[in-house]
Amino acid sequence: MWRYVIKRLLLMVFSFFVIMTISFFLIRLVPDPVKCTPTEPTCQAIKAWREELGYNKPIIVQYWLYLGKVFQGNWGIGFKMYRAQEVTDVLFSKLPYTMYVNFWSSIIAIPVGIGLGIYSALKKNKWQDSLISVLVMLVISVPSYVYCFIIQYFLCFRWGLFPYATDVGSAFFDPHFFYSYMPPILCLSLGTIAGLTRFTRAELTEALTSEYMLLARAKGLTRGQATVRHALKNAMVPIFPMIIGEFISIIGGSLIVEKFFSIPGVGGLFLDSISQVDTNFFMFLSMFYVAIGLVASLIVDLSYGWIDPRIRMGAR
Length: 316
Fold this sequence. Notes:
About 70% of the residues lie in helices and about 0% in strands. The chain contains 13 helices and no strands.
């Protein structure tokens, strides 16, 4: 196990730097859009940072200078967005809003998705199963911005149940704050509910038709007892890692939903860094998402061995 973990960590570090190198060279090929007049208060700080990075030197020299800054924990300052502000400070100021909406969407989506999947598996080939399957396929097939628009149109415009934009002035534990976040929470929940429902139904259906279920029924267990004690327990083995990955992704932003509902989170910041070609913000946020993805994949893979002792990572 330890050999497998060390190997995966080394591969994660290697993958991280390969992606960072490719991203750096690609973003440097984009024409530099930064224009700074000497009368601006932040102009001198921007010019000083750009000189340190050697913008007038070959790109390979710029890369080594950038790596030196990164190893010191300095990811730079904003050139166009939040000028002369540390990109790390801006990210951490917006991260709570992203975590808030993702946390509540996971809290709602996980039990609902698993519950619908269990119900659909128990009602296999009946009208309830068919209805749930059709709705799941619709949600999975339709892009997220479509049902974002539908939720905003009906819940916010036609029926006036929720405000158009989220509240950013209240405290996180204020009921009105949570109330204003309900539309984006519902939007983020739909995709997770559909995915969990589909996966849970498939795993539980397979478990219910296994031979050990016939043995359990032959030993005198009722259908409900056999389902809870055996089928559901075995079906949850591949589902729990999905739940773990869902909670890890809480710190990741939702690019479309955050922009759609004016959430001042990480997702909107990342889109702005691309549209405005702010290289320091783009590099840091790209590596932030890459790090989340790499850590989540490692923890999910390791969780299989923790949940089911029969699984041994790295075994031959």
